Every structure is written in C-alpha cells, then in structure tokens.
Amino acid sequence: MAGSVIDHAHVWMGYLARPRELLARSYDGIWELISNGTLVYIPGLSKTIHIGPREVALGLAVGIPALSVTRYLVYFVTGYIKYRMQASKTGLPMVSVPYLETNIFFSNLVRTNTYKRLFGMLPSWSKRWARWVRPEWRWIAKYSIHADMGDIFQVVTPEQINVNIADADVLMDVLNRRTEFTKYQPINGIVAVFGENVLTVEHHDWTRHRKVIGPSFSESTNAIVWNETIRQASAMLRYWRNTPPSDHKLLLHSLKLVGLNVMSYVEFGIPLPFDHEKDVTVIGEMIGALIAPKWLLPLLGNEFGQMLDAKAAIDSYIHAILEREESAPGQNVSESGKETLISALVKANAEAMAEEATGSPRAGLSNSEILGNVYVMILAALDTTSTALQFALINLAIHQDKQAWLHEQLDKDLASAEVPLSADPATWEYDTLFRKLTGPMCVAYETLRTHPSIPATLRWTGSEPRTITWHEDPLKSPRHIVLPAQSVVVLNFVGVQYNPKYWGLDAAEYKPERWAMESYTHEEQKDQGIQPSAKFPGVRRPPRGAFLPWSEGFRACLGRRFAETQMAAVLAVLFSQYRCEIRQQPGETSEGAKRRAQRALDGATMQMSLAARDRIELVWVPRK
C-alpha cells in the first residue's frame, strides 16, 4: 500500500516535471501513461507506468493548475526582466507593478470589499505599488504622483511599459505625431463594437472618416443643439421643481435623458418629451446594448435580452433613415425645417462617394461605418457631456461662493446681449447670446479641468522606438528620450490639468473665475501671456497642451462645439433664475451634506467615463 502511494506520488511529480512529453492512450479500459524516459530523473520510474482512471484524474487535477501557475510565474518573471531592462535605458524614473489597471479581472477585484480588507493587512512595503493598479489611480492621484516621480515616468509590468506624461509640450508633440503615436487598439476595440468609426480608425481611413463626419458639426447644427437643449433643460428644471427630491431619479440619469433627447432631435429630427418614463428605461437598455458584444447578450438573461432588442431596434431604425436619405436626400429635417445631423452626414457621404466614382481613392463610408459613427455620437452625448454637467452642478452646490460668482457673471452676460433677466429662455437666440456666456463657459471649462470625463488617453509607439524631446529644466538643454517599441504612451490629462506649472499653486482648487479675462489686470495678462479665447472673448485661452478635455491636434474631438453649446445652455437655463443646494439627509447639517457630496466627487469611478455614482440630491430655490 505504501509503495502504491509512493508510486502515485512519483507519477504526479512526473506530470509537473515533463508534462508536454507524456503520451496517454486507452487500452482495455485502463489508461496507460508512457513516459519514454521522460521520468528518468525520478529514481525507479524510468519505465512504463500503468495507473487507473482515478489516478489520471487526480494527476490532471493537480498537474494542470500547477502547470498553469508555473507557466504564469515564468511569464511574469521573464516579462518583468525584459521590460525592466528596456525601461532602464530611457533614463526615466520607473515603478514596477504586477499588472496593469487595464486588466479587467484585477481592476474589478481591487474594487471589492474583500480586497480592501486584505489590502489593509498587507505590509507597508507592498502598498507602494498597490495604488497603481486601480483603474482610477490617475484621478485619485491628480498631480501628486507626478510631483513625486516627475512629469514623465514609467510604470513597468510583465506585460508592457506604460510611459505616463503630464508635460504640456510633450503631450502636444505626441498628439501632433499621429502617424507615429497611433491610438492603442486594445482600448479602441471597445468602441469598435459599434462599427468602425472616426475614433477607431487610423491613417488614410481616419482622413476618410473625418472628411465625411466633419461637415455635420456645422454652426447650423449647433443652433439646433442650443434650442433643443434649452427646451429640455427647462423641462428638467420644472420636473425637479414640481417633484419631491426623494422621488427624483439620479441626477446623472436626468442629465443623460436631456442628452438623449437632444441627440434624438439633432440627429434624427425627432422631438422627445423629458418626462416620458419609457425613455428613461430605454437609456439604460441602449447603453448596455451598445457596450456589450452582440454574441454575449442572449447568454445573459432576459434583462440583457431587452438590451439586444433595443440595439436591434436602433439598428433597424437608423438603417431605415439611411435608406430614406439615400433615396430622397434632404427629406429628414427637424421641426424647424433645418437639416438634421444624419442628413448632413449622408449628404457629405454621397459627395465623397461621387468623388470616389471618378477614380479617386476610396473616400466614402459604408453603411456600417456610418452606423458606427452615429453610435459614437450618441454615446458622447449620453456619457461625457452628462457626467461633466453632473460634476458642475454638484461642485456649484458645494461651493456656494462659486455659484454666487456664476449668478453675478451670468447677469452681466445677459445684459451684454441685451437679454432681460426675466426673459423666457425659450426666446434666447444662439447667434446673439452663446458667445457672450462667459460665466457658464468658465464653469464648464473649470469643471472639465478638475473633473475630466476621460482622465487619460493611450497612444502606442508601434513596432519602432520613438523619440520625444523633453524640456525638463528650462535652464538646461532638452532631453531626447527614446521610448521602446511596443510601449504604451499614457497622455495623463488629469495630471497636466492639475500641474501647478501651468495652473498655479491653487491648481487643486475649484475656481471657475480663473477662466474669466476680467479676473486679471492688464499687467497680469501681459506678464503671464494670458489671451482671450477666439470663440469666447470673455474667457481666457488655456495654456497650450494643459487643457485637453477634447484632446488637441489632428485628432481633436469633432463634437467639441456641440458639447460646449449643450453645457452652456443647460447652465444658463438652470442658474439664470435659480440656485441649488445639497439636499440634507435627516439629522445632517449643511456642512455635513457638503462633505458627503465632496466624498461622492472624490470617489468617482470609471465606466465609459468618469462619474460620481453615489446618490446626491439637489434642491432648487428661486434666486432673490
């Protein structure tokens, strides 16, 4: 008996020693493992060994997990050594971590309460790397990690090197070299689920997409955005005013509904009421349907089946509009008779296809590519703009002095446009008022600076090393740094937007007035090189490369003016006649409510964009 146990133990050890050279075959119901000398290193076992099915199953149960662990450890160690050696050649500071924050399994694990409890039990030395593996670590750290490590540093893992950048000049250099630093495709693949679009393609394909998509974002489109946003924001305010706060949907939910309704009207010419409960349901269904791959949805139960139905309905509807536009161009218009965004898109595509028919290189988009771009537009309206407005409203409710500044500035803005304070927002004209909304735009920009919807974006060096030039010390010669091939370049937007080199020692403070030209004397404007924005005369131009909510360079966001128009209109409607406060919970003081709201902001998490997930209710009170 003892000998049998020892023999079995030796067999299992053999699985671990040379598993790939073992051959298994069936004979008379008995599994025969033939070693062919592979177990020669184990005394007494250099022969064919006959064991039963139970032993085989047990051997596999032990051997396969052990092999997987061994293989991972080998991969871990060799990968770490390889990338550590590459990173050391750059001369940049580095930190080593076991995995990237983009690892879906581990990034979700670190959010669990179990992990948090275990983390509290770890020795202090191991916690040095733990902060780097949370998906939101850049948002949590702001500029503080760069203050410790430098404006450019590396995070080294067994998988790759991540070069983190919070220097404005280097950021702009990378953004402008779009053929050398391409978008990081593993992340782009998430958005490509909708279909190839202007965010996912590169090189000539990107030029082709941009040529077709660009004309859709015209001033006439922005005027439609302005009018419909005012209508939706006014309806949202009435809902908030006439419904007890405890019965409200989440603040972010309401703002997403505004975004959805505006996009429905601007893109398809279909007006939707704000308070339609079915529309509220569709938001959640559509977002889930957009993000999840088609093949996965049927496997996830009835709720996800509804998402599949929602996506199928959206696909069918958009295809019908495309067919109608192609057969009768210009028929899909809004109630005002103006061309919708999808009409402009189809028109531009038809012109590109006509150019292609003359023998020019491929210029038009396929229907699936048009569909992909339409989805990306919807997602942007639902997510990034809505979360930015959520951050703006909560910040203004916390910082009552900043809200008072907005009220005062907004009154000046309306007066400068000769708009009476008592005028119905529905009468506000885009051409007359939008460019004069200094207060709302200062709030919008400061919110996007301190709470960027996308804290960072990724680029890729590709198959060749890339050289960047860094003026680390203005008193010394610039450094020329060679980044290894196949390295990820992380453009840390939140880092550069909190960098005191560009925003002063108060960079961490929420100060909308820092954007107002009137906040600076003529001497300060001259000494600091502060100039007015080309679009908004009362708003300062940000330091180049230090404010990137819409990115910059060749691949800057095409929908920037769309988002600016929507944010300015919502803020102007809400704060022209009302002020807001954080609704206090039972037994809570006003200051306690503000602290709770601040914790919600600080604890924002990433999904498609950064957003506060905790329930924060606002109370709207008429201005005196």
Automatic annotation (TrEMBL):
Residues annotated to bind heme: C557
Protein name: Related to cytochrome P450 monooxygenase, putative-Aspergillus clavatus
Keyword match Nucleus: no
Organism of provenance: Serendipita indica (strain DSM 11827) (Root endophyte fungus)
The protein's required cofactors: heme
Keywords: Heme, Iron, Metal-binding, Monooxygenase, Oxidoreductase
PANTHER family, sorted: CYTOCHROME P450, CYTOCHROME P450-DIT2
Entry's Gene Ontology molecular function annotations: heme binding; iron ion binding; monooxygenase activity; oxidoreductase activity, acting on paired donors, with incorporation or reduction of molecular oxygen
Coiled coil spans: none
Ranges where the record places region Disordered: 521-540
Annotated pathway: Secondary metabolite biosynthesis
